[in-house]
Amino acid sequence: MAVDEETADLTDGEVRAIHRVELGIEWLHRAHGSLLEFHHNTGHAMEHFADAEALLREHGHEDLADEIRDQYLPRGVVDGGRWSYDVVESFQEDMLEDLTAFEKRTRQEVADGRRHVAERSQEREWKRRAQRD
């Protein structure tokens, strides 16, 4: 892979390693998006339950309305009451932040901060090939 002038200072293994670290970060961003979707979907679901509480109460079903109010609306989604926003914040502040810093440091130490070295090399090769044919 390290055949062109921009990546000549890197071994094929270094190019592959940087590529894998960058792919890892991209997948963590996808996971973050999924967590945000989970957080928003949970919030919308709870809004429906809040509406149901009022309607049940209005129609004389106090016990069911109280159950929603007392057991389900204040309830968290994981680990003893953690709400979905808390899960999102933990992911952002711990895993995503730490690994994003690691990815940047790795690129800096191995490839002088260059990003997407594998893709850039592939792009140049495909363009050269297209110009030859």
Low-confidence runs (pLDDT<50, min 5 residues)?
Answer: none
Distance between the termini: 21 Å
Mean pLDDT across residues = 93
State the major sheet.
none
Commentary on this structure:
It is a single chain. The chain is mainly alpha-helical and 133 residues long. It has one domain (12-132). 77% of the residues lie in helices and 0% in strands.
Outline the secondary-structure elements.
Elements: H1 12-58, H2 62-72, H3 84-111, H4 117-132
Helix pairs in contact: 1-2, 1-3
Summarize the structure.
The protein is an all-alpha fold. The chain is built from four helices and no strands. The model has no long low-confidence stretch (mean pLDDT 93).
Question: Main traits of this protein?
Answer:
133 residues, 4 helices
